[in-house]
Amino acid sequence: MHPISSLLEDVGNRALRFDPETCRRLAELDGRVICLRILRLPLEPLDILLAPSEAGLRRVRQSAAEADVTISASSVVFARLAMGRPMAAGEIQISGDVALGQAFQRILEHVQIDWEEALSRLTGDIAAHQIARAARHATEWGRHVADTLQQDAAEYLQEEARLLATRPEVERFLDAVDRLRADAERLGKRLDRFEAPRS
Q1: Mind listing the domains of the chain with CATH numbers?
Q2: What is the mean pLDDT of residues 162-169?
């Protein structure tokens, strides 16, 4: 196993110790093998095989063919899943033991690591609390900046660059299409009456 993989496994499992509920739920899957297939177009998929237990997730050397379940997604989707973000339909494919794959997905979605407690082991309670508070503020600020940028970008594309239509413009366009459709239907009926043989 690559040294970096071993390091990531060790760090990840140390972090999971600060989430006892996740460790308890992983223990229920002890003895099973889960293949995470990371889709990397145009490259070949990367398979990572994991054995869950109360101690966390251990990487194993079996082949993907021997795994109980294979969960396929892009690296971005796996990262969002690990952060507890909701998944859109079709972003993840599960083959093999679907119930096991869904159970593992739910575990990842509900990981709640107490980072403040973890930091306190290294820095002490006061410093850990200050770092955690600063991180929360930074996260809130980041969300605010992202929302503002998204809104500003939409306004620029609609009002300045005129690349996107505004909602009133879309509604006016749809109304015009409806009127045109109705006019075309009336014209078609008039033509049918005109072309009908006179009695």
Answers
A1: 3-109 (3.30.1050.10), 117-194 (no CATH)
A2: 65
